[in-house]
Amino acid sequence: MNDIHLEKGWSTFKSYTQAKLAMNMTTRKMAKEWAEYGITINALNPGFIKTNLLRQIKGWERWIGVPYMYFCASKPEKGADRILRLALSKEYENISGKFVYEDAIREPNPLDLDDSLVEQVWALSKKQVGL
Is residue 54 part of a domain? Predict the structure, then answer.
């Protein structure tokens, strides 16, 4: 929480993982807040999908990342199927506040379970968007 904008050492990986951690934290928070309304909220990582995600990356990350994505990533349709499955399947109908990786619920990062840190991230998020 001391360097939320990564001004002291930005990197693609750090930025991406920090954003995912914050997303998972806010997913848990929103799931709790909206449970009384029958709304379920989950976070999904559809897996390594061929996208334009690497189009802005420079240097060694691009040199390694682009060929790796080309040969190892799943087709976009696979990612779309996973998104639709989570949104529409009866399998996830009453599940909320979870992290789904590809086709399975995964244990969260231990930081996701730190309610004090989750509250700090939630407050900061609201402040960042003017709420």
Answer: yes
